[in-house]
Amino acid sequence: MGSSTNESTLCEAAFSLEKIGVENSKVIEELIKLIDSTTNESTLWKAAETLAKIYPGNAKAVEKLIELIDFASDEGIRRLAALSLEKINPGNPKTIEKLIELIDFASDEGIRRLAALSLEKINPGNPKTIEKLIELI
């Protein structure tokens, strides 16, 4: 990440990298650094969204999104990270477990609903998914 501290510039850079940084591991590393260093919600939002779009299946990106779900104080950021997990690596067992955990423990009903919808999309027919969704009825 450069020496720029202007949040709108950082957010715009993340947006641009979404278009040109597809499957570039250096871009993933820099977006993760950006997520680790910013407290600006717009920048966090864009960086998380960009991670999901540019390198589906990247383990570091999956871990960072899970970390955002676990530690972000803003519920919107947590929702976006959960939605991004659905897109970045739908078959990843960690993704599925995190979505199930959100259904079980998230206090925000929007996150719980999003996790259920994501599970339905990424893991249809899986007995564990079916069981979790039945529990919600």
Please give a quick description of this structure.
The chain is an all-alpha fold and 137 residues long.
Detailed description of the structure:
With 137 residues, the protein is an all-alpha fold. It has 8 helices and no strands. It is globular and about 45 Å long. The model has no long low-confidence stretch (mean pLDDT 80).
Figure out the total of helices: 8
Helix content: over 70%
Query: Structural class of the secondary elements?
Result: mainly alpha
Spatial separation of the terminal alpha carbons: 46 Å
Q: Kindly state the mean pLDDT as a whole number?
A: 80
Give the total of beta strands. 0
Question: pLDDT below 50 for ≥5 consecutive residues: which ranges?
Answer: none
- Strand fraction equals under 5%
Order of helices and strands: HHHHHHHH
* Quaternary structure: single chain
Can you summarize the main beta sheet?
none
Estimated radius of gyration: 15 Å
